[in-house]
Amino acid sequence: MKKYLVKRLLLLIPTFIGITLITYLMVRLAPGDYTTLRAGVQGELKQGAIGKEIIEQEKKLFGLDKPIPVGYAEWLWKFVRLDFGISRKDGRPVSARIAEALPITLRLNLIAMIVVYIISIPMGIFSAVRKDSTYDRVSSLALFVLYSLPSFWVGLLLLLVFSGGDYLNLFPLGGEISDWARDFGFFGRLGNRIWHLVLPVVTLTYGSFAFLSRYARANMLEVINQQYITTARAKGLSDNSVVFVHAFRNSLVPLVTLMATLLPGLLGGSVIVEQIFSIPGMGLLAFEAILSRDIPVIMAIAAISALLTLLGILLADIMYGLVDPRIRLEAKL
Amino acid sequence: MSAQGYWSNVWREFRRNRFALAGLSIVAILFVIALLAPLIANDRPYVFVDGGRAYFPLFKDYPALKDVNFRTTRGSFSVMPPIPYSYSAYDLDAIVLPPSARHVLGTDEQGRDLAARMVYGTRVSILVGFIAVFIYVSIGIVVGAVAGYYGGRTDMLISRFIEIVMCFPTFFLILTILALVGPSLTSVMVVIGLTGWTGIARIVRGEFLKLREADYVTASRALGAGDARIIMRHVLPNALAPVLVSATFGIASTILIESSLSFLGFGVQPPTPSWGDILSQSRDFMDFAWWLTLIPGFAIFITITSYNLVGEGFQDAIDPKALKRGRD
């Protein structure tokens, strides 16, 4: 296990360099100089109308006057020390803005992930146990429909129907916590936060149910057809005990790795969900940074979200190694 | 079994799936609508007879008829298209009207006919879906084939690179690049194409790793065939089925990405109508203008469902054994 871990961790270094290099090159090699692009976007200055010195100054500020390798090395060195530069929008350090936004998005995604697992795994297993029953067919059709519903549309409709009082006024229009709830006790605030989270979490999760429950169903079917299950049945165990004691645990193994696959999708999805429900997380921060061409913020978010995904994959691999000895013994990567 | 025999088997399996066939029919209908959009929604008549002369304004420009409004001027005989509005002509006397006999799907905030815009929006979704997927399937096949066929160090380097690219959340990556290069129909297609290839590359790599050890590959190598010939003629055709399945699902998700981008204002730029853009415009009056919210959203949903159904049917058809084992 130790050897496996060390090898896995060492591999992080080239991947980290790759991620940061792609982020840097993406901004550096994009057609059009972004210092002039910014001026054009803000509409205050026409292209070419800015003084040469200002452009030079801007370029210096972002290391754009240096050759790519030097510029990259300097940016990377700052990046590892968590110095992501100054946001162009409000002049605050990017790291401070990210420190505010990241926990919000992580919390939202973590809750979404738990909800997806809690709902779809039992559904999938039930489908597998009652294979080809009416329940199996209806649920797989329903999940398929959910999977094809565009999330921004669902988000809008949920807002229209459940918030604002046009039809129902059950949930808040957006945000994280109501202003009037800030003085509540711990449980009051928690309750208020959960109340705010209902619609965003629904929007973020419903599309993943289909994927995960089918996966759980397929895994379960595979396990049920194994010989040791037949043996368990042959020695007279009840159906429930076969399914829950013997099959269920083994069918869970591949589901662990899926967490890593779901993560980038959920993170990307936060851009839309956070924009619709005005949640001040990474997605909204990224969207606003992109709108105002706030390059330091964009670069930091791109690299950080890729690194988070990488950590997710690593975590899943390690857990996989823990539950399945064959993997860590071979140490094959 | 010949290649033709294989594909006709796949078709036979596919046809047995009613949902997949329904999906395929809807896809075909959308294609026809996209192709014939100018004939379906146009503010100029097919035929216009006036003063004993027949004009065909939809097919030809007549200087004499330049300022004629064909909706009010009927002439002695005229045949209008089913939706007698263009997708961009605004009418400020008819803003945000609900569906009626005049405007079957209502109008938007500039008085443009929603039906005409929806018809033209079909073009955007099909164009983006197919071209972007074509780009990334091509890249994915080349990258995956090289990695899988040569193996060893080449494979290691390429696989690492694929892993790195896969770490970036795709939607965010696309949004960022679009912000840097400027959004337009072309850049949306190219950027989705350039970022989406990793899944295909992994599939092709896997198939090639498996197939390069096959006896028929060794045989053709013994006969003196070069790498390029072996890859193109012998391995690739046998690795193609899972790639095409994944590409079909890819079209569905590309259409979703395009509409999400347009929804956020980073997609196709006005006046070109995109379903996502129509939906995004509706946000200001969604409390009463239900047609502006429900119709484009439903169109996106139906389109995505159809491609997914085709993909599902296709997947089951290329691997009927898996279906019987219960993996569907």
Characterise this structure:
The complex is a heterodimer of chains A (333) and B (328). Chain A is mostly helical. Helix content of chain A is 76%, strand content 0%. Chain A has helices at residues 2-10, 12-29, 34-42, 52-61, 68-80, 94-129, 134-148, 151-162, 186-224, 227-234, 239-276, 282-291, 295-323, 325-330. The two termini of chain A are 13 Å apart. In chain A, 36% of the residues are buried. Chain B is mainly alpha-helical and 328 residues long. Chain B has 13 helices and 3 strands; from the N terminus they run αααβββαααααααααα. Chain B has helices at residues 3-15, 18-35, 37-40, 114-150, 152-167, 170-181, 185-195, 198-211, 215-222, 227-263, 275-281, 290-318, 320-325, and strands spanning 47-50, 53-55, 77-79. In chain B, helix 4 (114-150) runs antiparallel to helix 10, helix 6 packs across helix 7 and helix 10 packs parallel to helix 11. The longest helix of chain B has 37 residues, at 114-150. Residues 323-328 of chain B have low confidence and may be disordered. The chains are: A mainly alpha (333), B mainly alpha (328). The interface between A and B is large, with 55 and 45 residues.
Measured as a percent range, the helix fraction of chain A is over 70%
Task: Output the CATH topology of the domain at 101-332 in chain A.
Answer: MetI-like fold
Which range best describes the helical content of chain B: under 10%, 10-25%, 25-40%, 40-55%, 55-70% or over 70%? 55-70%
What is the typical, i.e. mean, pLDDT of chain A? Answer: 78
Q: Helix-strand pattern of chain A, N to C?
A: HHHHHHHHHHHHHH
The amount of beta strand of chain B, in percent, is under 5%
Radius of gyration of chain A: 25 Å
How many β strands of chain A by DSSP? 0
Low-confidence stretches of chain B: 323-328
The total count of strands of chain B amounts to 3
Rg from alpha-carbon coordinates of chain B: 24 Å
Count interface residues per chain for the largest interface: A-B, 55 and 45 residues
